[in-house]
Specification:
GO terms for molecular function: deacetylase activity; hydrolase activity. It is found in: Nucleus. Belongs to the histone deacetylase family. HD type 2 subfamily. The chain is an alpha/beta fold and 662 residues long. It folds into two domains: 351 residues, Histone deacetylase domain (Arginase, Chain A), CATH 3.40.800; 229 residues, Histone deacetylase domain (Arginase, Chain A, 3-Layer(aba) Sandwich). It contains 21 helices and 14 strands. The strands form two sheets. Strands 8-7-9-14-13-10-11-12 form an eight-stranded parallel beta sheet, sandwiched between helices. Strands 1-6-5-2-3-4 form a six-stranded parallel beta sheet, sandwiched between helices. Bound molecules: N-{4-[(3-aminopropyl)amino]butyl}acetamide and zinc ion (ZN). The site of N-{4-[(3-aminopropyl)amino]butyl}acetamide has 14 residues, from loops.
């Protein structure tokens, strides 16, 4: 039997594409090795015998003739032996473990293993779905044993359910397994009941298996991001893993003949960027599926580029999850409510009548096309997506600014910052004066104010001209500085600016309607200011030790921001901020996925610890830690719910339940 999609070209074309983006030369190359029998047996041992059937059978295929290979392969579902399969599979295991060692020893922060055969369908005692040994599962057991890890997160973004991985860790609370997958009400391979959202784990492992079944094809960027905001990320931050492994199949990307989904390569940059915020950045990405060679290789490149710390491309197009995706998200949240603190006060209930149920009947009645016909249309489709991607990647990729983070040395305090920043000269006084009187006179009333605009304008200019990626500036009058900054940016041609105010500030109403989205995080209710689509006030006061801001950041701020798709983010920290430094760091880390990482921080509160943390977050120099996870109080959870209900029609990434409450 032959397999015409899980082919060696998957690796060679990915590698060629990495070379053409000059990504290979920026990586540390970790040599592969064969995984040892002992390592393979960490997962594939038989519990009752000394004879380890799975390993022995696999080993014996090395010397078989074609007929024997066919016979053995016939014992499995969608697995095909070649005389080299065993050796390749041992290399795939070994390469994966080498990556785990490189990350755990601190030699590298993160990395990707380009291996085949893939692993996530492989079970303790069976090959399955192109997988012989379960590379990622072995890696998790290995990391537990060798490094004493107690919490490992496996994120399986392959379009198929990694049922093998689920079976292996079903009863194990030390490994949290998350998988989304094409399901179509159990119509799609491997067509298992246990791939549905109600398979949450067994025994002690209850709550540590999370399945998000897609009941329709055509899921895209918004659906994947919604799944991260409303399911995976909150759980992941609560779980607080020590290591993150990705079962990284790109058959969930556009053009894949298996997945039939619509997500474009840059979404993988975003998913990667989010996962880099966990486990102190310890992230190992291991290849699984992905059968459209162009889609696969571009997605691999987006992943590696992000692992290397490059800014993330903007997502284009309408940001709204589809109804079926939202329904799936609602059900998995309902299924996991008993197990996770962050869900305690979320109003989640199961949705029984899914909008996709009728689609089953349609499918059964549809005329099956002949194999010849479907091969033809498949080829057409493949070429079409190839052409689309060729153009699309040119459109979304952008030159990385030569400088990451800029500041001015107005008070000679820049040297106190923990990371070397790029120093920019203040704008010249006459120049400011001219600018202000021409365009900003209504905003700048006091004389001493315009004097303080020199640093702000100098840095902002560099960001707008894309000479630097982000910047930090002190300002004794943040509200005025920001008002000027916003109008200046819009005048420069930026169409959507996201502005987040933190603390007590007299917010100057913006006149750039629709081109600015403001969010104000403060303790007191803003009297007289009513929220609207472009002005949202989030009253929040710190009341816990640790960090209880995850629910606001993931459940509200990020979905709104992703719905808006800003091309610049401005953050202003004023007096009496009501969130902690660790919470501001979290926000900064998450928001760097937007606006090609263009962030401008305007600081009125210049407490040294705060300045250091913001500088660190912007420079991306250290791996973040955001303080201990604290679940939101009922009051706070309720606040988020009310805001979500209020805005989910306009900012659709907020949607996480099927039947809208308004
Ligand atoms: N009629 C991975 O992506 N399809 N495996 C079988 C049987 C198997 C995919 C169809 C697809 C396996 C790693
Ligand atoms: Zn797959």
């Amino acid at each position: 039997p032959v397999c015409d999609i899980e082919v060696p070209e998957r690796l060679s074309s990915s590698y060629e594409q990495l070379k053409s983006y000059h990504l290979v030369e920026r990586c540390v190359l970790v040599p592969a090795r064969e995984g040892s029998e002992e390592e393979i047996l960490l997962v594939h041992r038989s519990e009752t015998y000394f004879y380890h059937q799975h390993l022995e059978v696999a080993k014996s295929t090395q010397t078989m003739n074609e007929e024997e290979l066919k016979r053995v392969s016939g014992n499995y579902d969608a697995f095909f032996f070649h005389p080299n399969t065993y050796r390749c599979a041992r290399l795939a295991v070994g390469a994966t473990l080498q990556l785990v060692d490189a990350v755990m020893s601190g030699k590298v922060c993160n990395g990707m293993a380009l291996v085949r055969p893939p692993g996530h369908h492989s079970q303790r005692n069976a090959a399955n779905g192109f997988c012989l040994f379960n590379n990622v599962a072995i890696a998790a057991e290995y990391a537990k044993l060798k490094y004493g890890l107690q919490r490992i997160l496996i994120v399986d973004w392959d379009v198929h359910h990694g049922q093998g991985t689920q079976y292996i860790f079903e009863e194990d609370p030390s490994v949290l397994y998350f998988s989304w997958h094409r399901y179509e009400h159990q119509e799609f391979w491997p067509s298992l009941k246990e791939s549905d959202h109600d398979a949450v784990g067994l025994g002690k492992g209850k709550g540590f298996n999370i399945n998000l079944p897609w009941n329709k094809v055509g899921m895209g960027n918004s659906d994947y991001l919604a799944a991260f905001f409303h399911v995976l990320l909150p759980v992941a931050f609560e779980f607080d893993p020590e290591l993150v492994l990705v079962s990284s199949g790109y058959d969930s990307g556009i053009g894949d003949p298996e997945g039939q989904m619509n997500a474009t390569p840059e979404v993988f940059a975003h998913l990667t960027h989010f996962l880099m915020q966990l486990a102190n950045g310890k992230l190992c990405v291991i290849l699984e599926g992905g059968y459209h060679l162009k889609s696969l290789s571009e997605s691999v490149c987006m992943t590696v580029k992000t692992l290397l710390g490059d800014p993330v491309p903007q997502i284009t197009g309408e940001m709204a999850p589809c109804l079926s995706a939202v329904e799936s998200i609602q059900n998995v949240r309902a299924a996991h409510k008993p197990y996770w603190k962050w869900l305690i006060y979320e109003d989640t209930s199961f949705l029984q009548n899914l909008s996709t149920k009728s689609h089953l009947l349609k499918k059964a009645n549809a005329n099956p096309s002949t194999e010849q016909e479907s091969k033809m249309t498949n080829n057409d489709e493949t070429v079409k997506v190839e052409r689309f991607l060729e153009l699309h990647m040119k459109n979304i990729l952008f030159p990385v600014p030569p400088v990451k983070t800029a500041t001015t040395d107005s008070k000679a305090s820049a040297h106190l910052l923990p990371v070397p920043l790029h120093l920019v000269k203040e704008m010249d006084k006459t120049e400011i004066k001219a600018l202000v009187s021409d365009f900003y006179a209504d905003l700048v009333k006091e004389d001493k104010t315009w004097l303080s605009l020199g640093s702000m304008l100098a840095i902002l200019d560099k960001i707008l001209k894309k000479e630097v990626c982000n910047g930090i500036v002190e300002s004794p009058t943040a509200a005025v500085s920001v008002a000027v900054a916003l109008r200046h940016s819009v005048r420069f041609g930026f169409q959507r600016v996201l502005c987040i105010f933190i603390g007590d500030m007299e917010i100057i109403p913006n006149t750039e309607d629709g081109k600015v989205l403001m969010m104000h995080i403060c303790e007191k209710e803003q009297s007289g200011k009513t929220s609207s689509k472009h002005y949202i006030s989030l009253n929040w006061k710190e009341d816990a030790e640790g960090n209880d801001f995850y629910s606001a950041a993931l459940g509200f701020i990020l979905p709104v921001a992703y719905s808006y798709q800003p091309n610049l983010t401005v953050i202003a920290v004023g007096p009496n901020r009501s969130i902690r430094i660790s919470e501001i760091s979290l926000l900064l880390a998450l928001l760097q996925g937007l606006a090609e990482s263009r962030i401008f921080a305007v600081m009125e509160d210049t407490e040294i610890n705060l300045m250091q943390s913001v500088a660190k977050a912007l420079a991306g120099a250290s791996t973040p830690h955001f303080g201990v996870y604290v679940p939101p109080t009922q009051e706070k959870a309720n606040k988020i719910k009310i805001l979500r209900d209020q805005f989910q029609q306009e900012w659709k990434m907020l949607q996480c339940s099927g039947k809208l409450s308004i």
